[in-house]
Amino acid sequence: MNVSRRNFLKGAAAGTAGTALTAGVLAGGARADGGTAHGTPAAASYPFHGTHQAGVLTPDPADKQAFACFAAFDATADSRAALAGLMRALTSRARFLTSGGTPPDLGPGRPPPDSDVLGPAVPADGLTVTVSVGSSLFDGRYGLGDRKPRKLTPMRAFPNDSPDPAWLHGDLLLQLSAHHPDTIHHAIRDITRHTRAAMQLRWKMAGYNSPPRPSGTSRNLLGFKDGTANPTGGLAGSLVWVDDPAEPSWAQGGSYQVVRLIRMLVEFWDRVSINEQEGMFGRRRDSGAPLDGSSEFDTPDYAADPEGNVIALDAHIRLANPRTPATARQRIVRRSYNYDLGVDVNGNLQAGHIFAAYQQDLQRQFETIQKRLIDEPLVDYVQPFGGGYFYTLPGVRDSGDWYGRALLA
Predict the structure, then answer these.
(1) Distances (CA, A) of 309 to 62, 301, 312
(2) Which of 199, 216, 236, 271 could form an SS bridge with 231, CB 3.0 to 4.6 Å?
């Protein structure tokens, strides 16, 4: 039976009800059984204090924590002083949760200090808490308008997007990453318990990072390796951390963060021939190799294929990263995850991708790439619907520092 792609998309969109996707999709101590998605020993914990926040870059980006949650909040603090109090409380909880330890005994007449989801002692379990702010925090409520990062705006809707307001934007965004999902559940419960009077949850999406099968980079829910060309090492840092003297002084050492929630129409995708799937990506599904190569990390040679006879001119990898001197500084560092929300009202699977990326300049990097991807063949199979643009705060430098201290000073 032939299926119209556009008709399928319309039907899926009608039953989405708060499920949207992004075309950019493709673009203490740990527990004894802790391990990264690659099967290597998991870091028991990551340093909380430093120039930059943890949770953006890891020594090996392929070995990021296996589970994550992106939670956006509306600030409800009634003054700038109350907002500063919120950030201090958030810092205190994140510092404890990422280090691990035993909660204090408050006595039998009071509510327990912890949910005990992780037992009486809280393991660090590789947890990182990465805090970012949205452009809406810089409206008139807190007198921060003149301190907004220069390039921070609400996330724009691109052609092929299906934005759902219920899943968009936020004053604050927490990215929680850990080796196990119950660690993340515990952390979000703990944080919301201690900050309820000053911020309210707006939307939340949990994700997971698939292990490599059989080796190399993890796969997305379309079955293809995802993030093969992610910059690493010093190159990654040079593309991520803001050092522009035109930015506010408090923002130095932070990063612009893009989060895109992208539904993948997996049932429709599974009816497409393997040749067509690989042609849309420009890579082989089994090995991840570019169509003109033999292994995953081979560099595609576009100069030898100017007409796109091997890797089509509109293949995803060719549009996302043309590999020219002019586009080298447009690259981004991605930290993406898969998600699964069950089924929609029409009985279709609600699964997809949490696209998360960091860069120095939203317009020079992410938006330039995204514009090249407009109307690429993959748009028939993905449905971006939510997320936002945020600014990841500089790191908490020491025990006397707190998130956003320089911003709110």
Answers:
(1) 31, 12, 6
(2) 236
